[in-house]
Design a protein that fits this description.
The protein is mostly beta strands and about 120 residues long. It is built from no helices and eleven strands. Strands 2, 4, 5, 6, 9, 10 and 11 form a seven-stranded mixed β-sheet that branches. A four-stranded antiparallel β-sheet has the order 1-3-8-7, with no helix packed on it.
Length: about 120
């Protein structure tokens, strides 16, 4: 059974940092492009970043410079490091697996498995 389990969220003051993790099971993470998305209250789910199997990474404009996606294929785990957190980063963060292994996409519909999400709240 394919499972994705996020962790690492929490309440952080503006300017703080967090490292989110996504533990994968039931498949080999190294065979797939993986992405991070987030959804703020009242807003649609938006793409944050993706990383493919050969080191290609891409970030949404809102994530460039502060977010770093990384993968530990040996541990079957995906990470998202977020620095200089801002109140507008408040959202539930999800990891997701690409529906087609080698096709990285910014579209939620192009992903077939999702984690349950981890809440990130940035507030003083």
């Amino acid at each position: 059974e394919v499972q994705l389990v996020e962790s690492g969220g929490g309440l952080v003051q503006p300017g703080g940092s967090l490292r989110l993790s996504c533990a994968a099971s039931g498949f080999t993470l190294g065979d797939y492009c993986m992405g991070w998305f987030r959804q703020a209250p009242g807003k649609e789910r938006e793409w944050v970043a993706y990383a493919d199997m050969i080191g290609t990474k891409a970030y949404a404009d809102s994530a460039k410079g502060r977010f770093t996606i990384s993968r530990d294929d040996a541990e079957n785990t995906l990470h998202l490091q977020i620095a200089d957190l801002k109140p507008e980063d408040t959202a539930v963060y999800y990891c997701a697996r690409a529906r087609i292994k080698w096709v990285c996409s910014r579209r939620p519909d192009d992903h077939d498995y999702w984690g349950q999400g981890t809440q990130v709240t940035v507030s003083s």
